[in-house]
TrEMBL record:
It comes from the Bacteria. It holds the Pfam family Cupin_2. This is Cupin type-2 domain-containing protein. It comes from Paraglaciecola arctica BSs20135. Residues 83-154 form the Cupin type-2 domain. Signal peptide: none annotated.
Length: 179
């Protein structure tokens, strides 16, 4: 008869912990206490219009915001992961990633999502714990329509995604950016 009360604690009780393996794993952990809100990652947008003010907190890779390096992140292999803090009334402008899928998970707040593919357009409301996967090549933008800041998890499907572009009709498409 098999014992059915096996737990992780019991399996690891009186087992020698490998320090080298532990160091390897610790190098792959990004702890919140060592993260900083980066209000400058997309500052060029907020300088153009304060409605675009938002902060990125990077965990895995630097994402596609144009931050070239961050020694405080876990190195990305196959995707990136960050959080985005979006103040009430602020927005992420319409943009496209031609090379990767982008995932938004709304952890806190209410977001209105705008999608555009050629002449097709769609909007939807994302609430807490809703997720959307936006395929490469589709323009996306979002607004925090709630009364409080929104917090989203953002994943991009590449360890080093390309910098996004803006639709030709959007004023940010005309801004020359130093990266």
């Amino acid at each position: 008869m098999t014992e059915n009360n096996v737990t992780n604690e019991k399996l690891f009780k009186n087992v020698e912990i490998d320090a080298g393996f532990g160091e390897q794993i610790e190098s792959r952990i990004a702890r919140f206490e060592s993260r900083k809100y980066d209000w400058n990652a997309l500052k060029f947008q907020a300088d153009y219009n304060p409605v675009y003010r938002r902060a990125q907190v990077r965990y895995l890779g630097t994402g596609a915001a144009g931050v070239s390096s961050d020694m405080n992140v876990v190195a990305a292999e196959n995707f990136t992961f960050s959080t985005m803090c979006l103040p009430s009334g602020c927005e992420g402008p319409m943009h496209v990633h031609h090379d990767v899928e982008e995932v938004f998970f709304v952890y806190k707040g209410t977001i209105k999502l705008f999608l555009e593919d050629g002449d097709k357009r769609y909007t939807t409301i994302l609430k807490e714990r809703d997720l959307v996967s936006v395929p490469a090549g589709i323009y996306r933008g979002l607004n925090n329509i709630g009364q409080e800041e929104a917090l989203m998890f953002v994943m991009l499907g590449s360890g080093k995604p390309q910098i996004p572009t803006y639709p030709d009709y959007h004023p940010l498409s005309k801004i020359k950016r130093d990266i």
